[in-house]
Design a protein that fits this description.
139 residues; Thiol Ester Dehydrase, Chain A; six-stranded antiparallel sheet; 18% helix; alpha+beta; 2 helices
Length: 139
């Protein structure tokens, strides 16, 4: 089973998310759009945990792409353990990767996804060099 996480990655965060009844679709499994919501929740909670600013009038992070590989269906009820990794820090960007597994099935990856994140000067609507503190955290 292939997971799109590079060999050179750094584990940075994990959290547990509940699978809600409303996350399922008519087929009885978690809808594909919800996986992206899980990935988003993990990224935002990681950003908050490292005290990165979320300031639309200054600088901060935005994602410029996102992907998800659906490996095994998630179904209600249950909890998802999300593990986030970072890799490839550049001048203004880095990649994040997250694996999703059921808490009651440790080590069995149900989905893997990620995003390319860019440090952005919001008023100028352009990328900007990321702060040294963030670059050190990613390295």
């Amino acid at each position: 089973m292939r997971i799109d996480i590079p060999d050179q990655k750094k584990f940075v965060f994990e959290m547990t998310l509940p699978i809600r009844w409303g996350d399922m679709d008519a087929m009885g499994h978690v809808n594909n759009t919800i996986y992206f919501r899980y990935l988003e929740n993990v990224r935002i909670e990681w950003v908050r945990s490292i005290s990165l600013p979320l300031n639309k009038d200054g600088e901060g992070v935005v994602i410029i792409n996102a992907f998800c590989n659906f490996l095994i269906q998630l179904e209600y009820p249950g909890d998802v353990l999300a593990k986030m990794y970072v890799a490839n820090p550049g001048r203004s960007s880095f990649d994040s990767y997250t694996t999703l597994e059921r808490v009651d099935m440790p080590g069995v990856i149900h989905a893997s996804g990620g995003a390319t994140t860019v440090w952005t000067d919001f008023p100028r609507k352009k990328s900007a060099p990321m702060p040294d503190s963030l670059r050190q955290l990613l390295s």
